[in-house]
Amino acid sequence: MKPGRNDPCPCGSGEKYKKCCGKVIALTPAPAATSAMASVPAPAPGAAQRECGSCTACCDGWMAGTIRGHDMQPGTPCHFVRDGGCSIYDERPQSPCRNFSCGWVRPDSPFPDEFRPDRLGVIIAPIKWRGQPAYLLCSAGRDPDEALLDWMRSFAARTGRPFFYEIAGEKMGFGPPAFQQDMLLRAQRGEKMW
Questions:
Q1: pTM of the shown model
Q2: 130 φ, ψ to 5°?
Q3: Which of 2, 77, 119, 154 reaches 20 to 30 Å from 160, CA-CA?
Q4: What is the structure's pLDDT at 41?
Q5: Could you tell me which residues are beta bridge partners of residue 76?
Q6: With helix as H, strand as E and coil as C, how does the chain read?
Q7: What is the C-alpha separation between 65 and 78, in angstroms, rounded?
């Protein structure tokens, strides 16, 4: 017998069924792009490469990880952030630090200056979906707002690059029909979306 949405989840997580194995994943279709992988605007010639500067959003606990035995998760910033920077930068571990890539700071970033994570309140992390570029919008103090989602939907429709995001704990995605189908199958199998 299938549990009710407010019943405890049968997997034993302690969560309500609707917040765990019965979670509904809302997927929004992307209109067909004229070219599935249209080119992304290149940085202007001679444009200065972006640097993190005083932005420590990835280290402020928004990206989970363990660094030298210290857990980092929402509400628990990295133990090694000091005075707006990393105190172990040259010796930082491969995982999660060196493996992390900020979509805003990358040399090929298609994202505008105002998307710097500490200003936007959201980290845009490049990931892969079926070997193709995709993005994960991670809260860095707030959930993505409608203006950011509109920008990302337009970008995804133009480039064919899907993205994932979370609002109020509900996981969602936006992308082409194959992406939508893949996400629905993952949800039905109880697999993680990302």
A1: 0.68
A2: 55, 40
A3: 119
A4: 47
A5: 73
A6: CCCCCCCECCCCCCCEHHHCCCCCCEEEECCCCCCCCCCCCCCCCCCCCCCCCCCCHHHCCCCCEEECCEEEECCECCCCEECCEECCHHHCCHHHHHCCCCCCCCCCCCCCHHHCHHHHCEEEEEEEECCEEEEEEEECCCCCCHHHHHHHHHHHHHHCCCEEEEECCEEEEEECHHHHHHHHHHHHHCCCCC
A7: 9
Each residue's pLDDT tens digit in the chain (194 positions)?
A: 667 777 786 666 677 756 665 655 444 444 443 333 334 444 444 456 788 888 878 888 777 778 888 887 777 788 888 776 788 888 888 888 888 889 999 988 999 999 999 999 999 999 999 899 999 999 988 999 999 999 999 999 999 999 999 998 888 899 999 998 998 888 888 888 77
Tell me the C-alpha distance between 7 and 16, whole Å.
Answer: 6
Residue 155: predicted pLDDT = 96
Encoding tokens for residue 99?
């493996």
Whole-angstrom distance, CA of residue 59 vs CA of residue 92: 12
Amino acid at site 41:
P
Q: How far apart are CA 2 and CA 21, in angstroms?
A: 11
* Cα(158)–Cα(31) distance, integer angstroms: 9
Say how far apart CA 156 and CA 30 lie, in whole Å: 7
